[in-house]
Design a protein that fits this description.
It is a single chain. This protein has 127 residues and is of the alpha/beta class. It has one domain: Response regulator (Rossmann fold, 3-Layer(aba) Sandwich), CATH 3.40.50.2300. 46% of the residues lie in helices and 19% in strands. A five-stranded parallel beta sheet has the order 2-1-3-4-5, sandwiched between helices. It is globular, with a radius of gyration of 14 Å.
């Protein structure tokens, strides 16, 4: 019997193209599929129209910031694992209650190994 493993599908929502490209390259090497969005509004639309195993969400973005995007995603899918990434600790402090909806918050700059570990642990939890 041939058992095929389901590909892990990750959505990366960040306005920084370099971050999107870096994470996409890392996850591609791990044989995960990635989709990207450059702002919260586009990211939210993608979560409504597709299924993801994990969402990586920046906080400080145009059109719809990460806090509002997180709230909107949780209304549609309260269980999908979400990692929030940010370089702005003040935004985290101001939005502690809403950000508790995320599974993990990782500060930029981050070590890629620690980031991968966080992703893998959340994917294992979801399975």
């Amino acid at each position: 019997m041939n058992v095929t493993k389901k590909k892990i599908n990750i959505l990366i929502v960040d306005d920084d193209e370099k971050i999107r490209e870096l994470l996409q390259a890392v996850f591609s090497d791990m044989e995960y599929t990635c989709d990207t969005a450059c702002d919260g509004q586009a990211g939210f639309k993608k979560t409504v129209n597709a299924s993801y195993d994990l969402i990586i969400l920046d906080l400080n973005m145009p059109l719809m910031n990460g806090v509002d995007c997180l709230k909107a995603i949780r209304q549609v899918d309260p269980l999908i694992p979400i990692i929030v990434i940010t370089g702005f600790q003040d935004i985290v402090e101001e939005n502690k209650q809403t950000l508790s909806l995320a599974n993990s918050i990782i500060n930029k700059p981050f070590k890629i190994e620690a980031f991968i570990n966080a992703v893998q642990s959340l994917i294992r939890i979801k399975k």
